[in-house]
Inverse folding.
């Protein structure tokens, strides 16, 4: 492999924003038909580097060569013409158009000389591209009816239609099911065999290890490590990324679950969503829910928090039956719900940190009977709180949440709930899209909550995370609880088995039920 | 499940069903209503609004709005009318009217694209500006057109009245652009997600620029068609036409949030439906003051049904996790 | 310096002052007490509607129906209070009865809008557009397009005498300002405008708050109608038909965002002041009705341009 020619060379690439150097003499190269893994914490400079490659930024110093020729794209179109394609975490597709239209949106084949789309050519070429990525769906299907994994294949087909020679994947697996991830990896290998090169960016180090030939580690804009995958390990990568060695990814758990039941669920069913869900969540307990995307994990959380209805069964909070819970009632009774979707459901992105932190507990700061907000008391509490969640020192409370990194945004969401002093937490994907360092801090925070007496329910796609954090894990499949595992019996394989076992859905594949809302915009 | 599906299908063809209902009701109340002459009448009367609404559909598809169409109609016919009075030929005057539409559309698009002002504000501004400008041109007096103009409105080619012919040509052209050209598909893409469109390399600004010009030109055409029917430019010519145009598009299933809607059948059906209701009310001799009440109620109903359908779809489409055994 | 000035939230107030100072020497009577009272009296009703609109806009909605609500409230109130065969004609309760009827109209239209938007999740633009057409048609039909005269002086004095209206509007402005900036409800309105889903999950009673904003807007329109009707000393079914530009223009010039989440009552006050000054000065310059219309259309687009430049600066 190492003998194949270099397709892309970064040579001492530098870039500063507002006088801050975000890239310092970045040098590495990519060989034809290989995959290079690019890892680093958020803010390490990965996106800036890729933006330079994509023609969004120009470097201040240094240069990039493509097949020995200087490569300096001035805009994304330049980059595309040179054969560089991006598959972003948030896919760039138009859900209201068909697969074929999405592939050719800027390059429609036309009827000779006329501004008219040659429909037949479009369909045939789309068909052949879809064959190449292994997607057997009619090209005239609208994208809105595709699953996340299928959409990604469409993006790749689009890259192939532009004769891409280098494909950059940015966190491609974060919204894929396990099966879809496997299929993606297979496709990536086929493409590499065809001589297409990849840059693969991900926080999921195990994926990077599995997929890439070489790994480059960035920290504070510098390349701090470059090696063949075979010669490194996850632990080494992490210590390179954070700049210190982390003995443990998960903080020591102190305290045991208490006997008091905080949240009890009895025979909870909602047709088409969940069936016969029953469990107890105790004070000081951390309970995990594992399962594939679309197994009903997040839907169960929404039902428990009163966002969606349930038909039969009981939800009891400290022994009190909630026949028809509403979010408002749940908040008042001391429940907190951190959703999987920070931007759409967690935060007011344009509002300030302070406004976001205060949102849940505002009624507690209103005077009795009246509705006057005590701003003095509020701002005192907020200042104390920002320390408690270890929000970055550089942030001002009046600053818009939009300007924060993913990890700090997540801390703001946590802070907003903490201020209300809840005793039951439902945390859906609490560490999604945040870097290793911030993850550790979030884990410590969760541990502290539990040892201080709160009951915590964690939903996560990362099995390691659940094994590292929980006292007990429920495995969901097909809207039911398939397995319950206590800490001493924790076993990665058993969890996966529970999540994957063949089920009787009528869909083509049990894991492909994670469809996006057709009308969501 | 099947009942739910049936309801969904029914809700999906709301406008068509409403159409049928309206025909049934008016048809049973008056025999005159269903006569071919009346059907042609309805089409002729709806052609002006439909043409303006077709232009509006382009704008709505990009998640914008054009409130200035009523004023553009007014200025266009005011200019054309003045020219006809001064002795210019009919053809030249029509060209001038189209130019007015183009210029106003361009003005809107420059303000929206170059200065990044919200379409709502820009076109509200040009609405007032245009109305004021037209009033200045006409010196706030009504201008009666020579017979040549109204004769044009009554003339037929191959038995089809000219307004309907113009209407059908605009419809065919608009439908073609939207469904068969790259521009049309890119308009849908921009409406769906402008940021993604930009990243995909679509020239978003150019597309936004085009849709407002199309809307302006359509407004001018619609204005002239209306002029051949009324035969006079009054100070309130085209007043509040923007609302009928938006209503027609929305009635036809076009979303105000962009990316969803069609010219045919959508918008056209909406425009004709509104006119059908008014026509029926005229035939039934209903108090003219009640027309806006009835039409607005119909529009409200249609939007209500469409929203219910969307909500229901969302509920049904929400990640079906398990299939329940049949009871 | 220029940058700081442009970014200041007092920019519009400053512009108004500059405009006033620049024009005063050249425009006879611009700075006279009588004219200032004139400006004030033309400001007040617009301010009242605009404040209601500000609530709706901050919550991420829009209320186009206020123009018709003003008309309907006007004719309903007048048909209760008028001396010409009014329902309470000559009765001492004519004035309070009329006012009550007007507020009732405002609350009804507002509740309808709010219910359609929150219960059925219909888009605010279309809902309030159809209610605008319906309510306006209803007002015209009720009166068969005729105005209503002979209103009791106790009724008209509210709108015709600026010194009666001023303290009332001032109190209302203060109440609404504090409601928005200092109370739980106000914070909730902003949160909903920023992100409705996040607000709901955070325990905000989204539907109730949204309903409130539309009812508030309807009530404000009705209150404005009292002032307009009093000023004209008659009720008309086409009253308020042309104020949509002034209304949206004033709030947007003030800095309230049509996307929701951003805005202040004080900003709206500045915006209304700015528009009233322009309106008044153009009138004094003896410009024709249509020139004023053109000028105002241009001014609003210009103000929006400044606002867009300002946002670009703020974000950079």
């Amino acid at each position: 492999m190492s003998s194949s020619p270099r397709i892309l060379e970064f040579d001492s690439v530098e870039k500063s924003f507002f006088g801050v150097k975000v890239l310092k003499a970045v040098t590495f190269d990519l060989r034809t038909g290989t995959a290079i893994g690019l890892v680093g914490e958020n803010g390490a400079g990965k996106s800036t580097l890729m933006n330079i490659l994509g023609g969004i930024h120009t470097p201040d110093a240094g240069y990039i060569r493509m097949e020995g020729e200087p490569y300096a794209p001035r805009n994304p179109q330049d980059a595309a013409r040179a054969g560089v394609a991006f598959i972003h975490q948030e896919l760039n597709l138009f859900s209201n158009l068909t697969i074929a239209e999405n592939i050719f949106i800027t390059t429609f084949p036309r009827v000779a000389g006329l501004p008219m789309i040659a429909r037949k050519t479009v369909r045939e070429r789309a068909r052949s591209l879809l064959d190449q990525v292994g997607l057997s769906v009619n090209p005239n299907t609208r994208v809105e009816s595709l699953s996340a994994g299928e959409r990604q294949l469409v993006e790749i087909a689009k890259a192939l239609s532009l004769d891409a020679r280098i494909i950059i994947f940015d966190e491609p697996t974060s919204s894929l099911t396990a099966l879809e991830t496997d299929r993606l990896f297979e496709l990536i290998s086929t493409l590499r065999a065809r001589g297409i090169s990849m840059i693969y960016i991900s926080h999921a180090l195990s994926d990077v290890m599995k997929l890439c030939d070489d790994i480059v580690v960035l920290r504070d804009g510098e390349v701090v490590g470059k090696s063949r995958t075979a010669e490194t390990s996850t632990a080494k990568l992490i210590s390179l990324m954070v700049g210190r060695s982390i003995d443990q990814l998960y903080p020591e758990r102190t305290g045991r679950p208490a006997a008091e039941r905080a949240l009890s669920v009895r025979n909870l069913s909602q047709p088409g969503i969940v069936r016969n869900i029953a469990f107890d969540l105790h004070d000081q307990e951390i309970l995990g829910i594992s399962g594939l995307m679309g197994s009903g994990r997040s839907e169960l959380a929404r039902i428990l928090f009163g966002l969606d209805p349930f038909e039969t069964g009981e939800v009891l909070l400290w022994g009190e039956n909630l026949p028809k819970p509403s979010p408002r009632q749940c908040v008042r009774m001391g429940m907190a719900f951190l959703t999987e979707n920070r931007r759409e459901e967690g935060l007011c992105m344009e509002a300030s940190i302070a406004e976001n932190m205060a949102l849940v507990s505002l009624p507690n700061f209103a005077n009795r009977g009246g509705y006057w907000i005590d701003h003095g008391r509020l701002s005192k509490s907020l200042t104390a709180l920002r320390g408690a969640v270890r929000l970055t020192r550089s942030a001002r409370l009046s600053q818009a949440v939009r300007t924060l990194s993913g990890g700090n945004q997540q801390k703001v969401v946590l802070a907003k709930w903490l201020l209300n002093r809840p005793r039951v937490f439902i945390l859906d994907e609490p560490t999604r899209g945040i870097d290793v360092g911030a993850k550790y801090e979030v884990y410590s925070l969760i541990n502290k909550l539990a040892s201080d007496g709160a009951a915590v329910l964690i939903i996560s796609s990362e099995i390691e995370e659940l094994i590292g954090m929980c006292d007990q894990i429920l495995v969901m499949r097909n809207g039911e609880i398939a397995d319950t595992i206590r800490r001493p019996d924790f076993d990665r394989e058993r969890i996966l088995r529970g999540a994957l076992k063949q089920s009787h859905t009528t869909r083509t594949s049990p894991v492909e039920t994670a469809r996006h809302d057709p009308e969501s915009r | 499940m099947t009942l739910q599906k049936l309801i969904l299908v029914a809700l999906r063809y709301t406008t068509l069903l409403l159409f049928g209902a309206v025909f049934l009701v008016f048809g049973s109340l008056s025999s005159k209503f269903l006569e071919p002459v009346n059907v042609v009448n309805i089409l002729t009367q709806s052609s002006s609004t439909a043409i303006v609404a077709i232009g509006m559909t382009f704008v709505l598809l990009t998640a914008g709005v054009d409130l200035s169409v009523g004023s553009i109609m007014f200025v266009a016919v005011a200019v054309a009318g003045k020219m006809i009075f001064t002795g210019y030929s009919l053809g030249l005057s029509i060209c001038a009217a189209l130019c007015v539409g183009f210029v106003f559309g361009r003005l809107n698009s420059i303000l929206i694209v170059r200065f990044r002002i919200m379409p709502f504000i820009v076109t509200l501004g040009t609405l007032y500006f245009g109305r004021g400008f037209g009033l200045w041109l006409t010196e706030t007096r009504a201008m009666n057109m020579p017979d040549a103009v109204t004769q044009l409105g009554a003339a037929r080619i191959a038995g089809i009245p000219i307004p309907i012919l113009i209407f059908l040509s605009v419809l065919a052209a608009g439908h073609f652009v939207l469904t068969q050209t790259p521009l049309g598909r890119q308009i849908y893409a921009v409406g769906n997600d402008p940021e993604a469109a930009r990243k995909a390399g679509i020239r978003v600004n150019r597309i936004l620029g085009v849709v407002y010009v199309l809307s302006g030109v359509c407004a001018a055409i619609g204005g002239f068609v209306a002029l051949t029917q009324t035969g006079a430019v009054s100070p309130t010519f085209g007043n509040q036409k923007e609302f009928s145009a938006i209503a027609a598009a929305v009635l036809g299933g076009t979303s105000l949030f962009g990316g969803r809607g069609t010219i045919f059948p959508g918008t056209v059906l909406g425009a004709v439906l509104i006119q059908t209701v008014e026509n029926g009310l005229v035939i039934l001799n209903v108090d003219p003051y009640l027309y806006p009440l009835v039409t607005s109620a119909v529009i409200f109903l249609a939007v209500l049904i469409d929203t219910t359908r969307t909500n229901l779809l969302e509920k049904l489409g929400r990640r079906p996790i398990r299939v329940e055994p049949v009871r | 310096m220029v940058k700081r000035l442009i970014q200041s939230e007092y920019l519009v107030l400053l512009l108004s002052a500059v405009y006033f100072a620049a024009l005063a020497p050249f425009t006879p009577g611009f700075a006279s007490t009588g004219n200032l009272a004139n400006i004030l009296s033309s400001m007040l009703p617009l301010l009242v509607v605009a404040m209601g609109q500000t609530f709706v806009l901050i919550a991420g909605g829009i209320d186009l129906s206020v123009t018709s609500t003003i008309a309907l409230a006007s004719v309903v109130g007048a048909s209760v209070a008028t001396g010409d065969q009014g329902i309470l004609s000559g009765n001492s309760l004519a004035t309070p009865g009329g006012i009550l009827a007007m507020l009732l109209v405002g609350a009804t239209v507002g509740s309808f809008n709010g219910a359609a938007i929150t219960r059925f999740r219909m888009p605010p633009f279309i809902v309030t557009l159809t209610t605008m057409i319906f309510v306006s048609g209803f007002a015209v039909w009720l009166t068969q397009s005729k105005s209503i005269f002979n209103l009791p002086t106790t009724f008209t004095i509210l709108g015709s005498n600026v010194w009666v209206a001023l303290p009332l509007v001032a109190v209302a402005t203060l109440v609404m300002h504090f409601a928005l900036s200092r109370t739980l409800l106000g914070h909730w309105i902003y949160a909903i405008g920023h992100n409705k889903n996040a607000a709901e999950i955070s325990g905000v009673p989204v539907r109730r708050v949204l309903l409130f904003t539309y009812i508030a807007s309807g009530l404000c329109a009705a209150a404005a109608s009292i002032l307009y009707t009093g000023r004209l000393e008659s009720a008309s079914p086409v009253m308020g038909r042309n104020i949509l530009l002034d209304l949206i223009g004033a709030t947007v010039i003030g800095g309230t965002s049509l996307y929701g989440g951003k805005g202040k009552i004080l900003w709206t006050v500045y915006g209304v002041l700015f528009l009233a000054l322009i309106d008044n000065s153009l009138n004094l310059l003896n410009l024709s009705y249509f020139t004023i219309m053109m000028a105002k259309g241009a001014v609003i687009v210009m103000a929006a341009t400044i606002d867009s430049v300002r946002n670009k600066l703020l974000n950079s």
